[in-house]
């Protein structure tokens, strides 16, 4: 619940959540599968007020995606009804629809070198950049110790805040390859 709260607060970013009637929607989309199916690689940052950041991952995204299709996605499809595609969809409806559509898969040639999916975010009240770097180091070390050769994350191209966040960490580069989905930026790093 606390990691979901971070997702809501950071996604909202003062604009007003476009889906207050579905408070778990953004958490379900961004981190729910990892929290449910890959707990061994979940790290949280806490301060006196509670959890204020997270770093999540999975060693090998290919079997993780298969597990999601079997157990996580059906649960989400039941939780969020498929919106009617005959009209202009709201932000919330687009996210709900994503649970009902086949997700694009990254090319196997990319995943051979970058098999681990990661997601990380830290509340903007945390101003010390070394905290984020330490959390990322813990996650990446854990993935490497369990056989990973590289990690990647997916970011929406219009999400300037999170792109800047990963840029400040200094260890990820934008990966470009034929066959990448057009609606995301892929950042990768060898381990």
From TrEMBL:
Molecular function GO terms recorded: beta-N-acetylglucosaminidase activity
GO biological process, one term: glycoprotein metabolic process
Protein name: Meningioma-expressed antigen 5 (Hyaluronidase)
Organism whose genome encodes this protein: Neovison vison (American mink)
Gene name of the encoded protein: E9PGF9
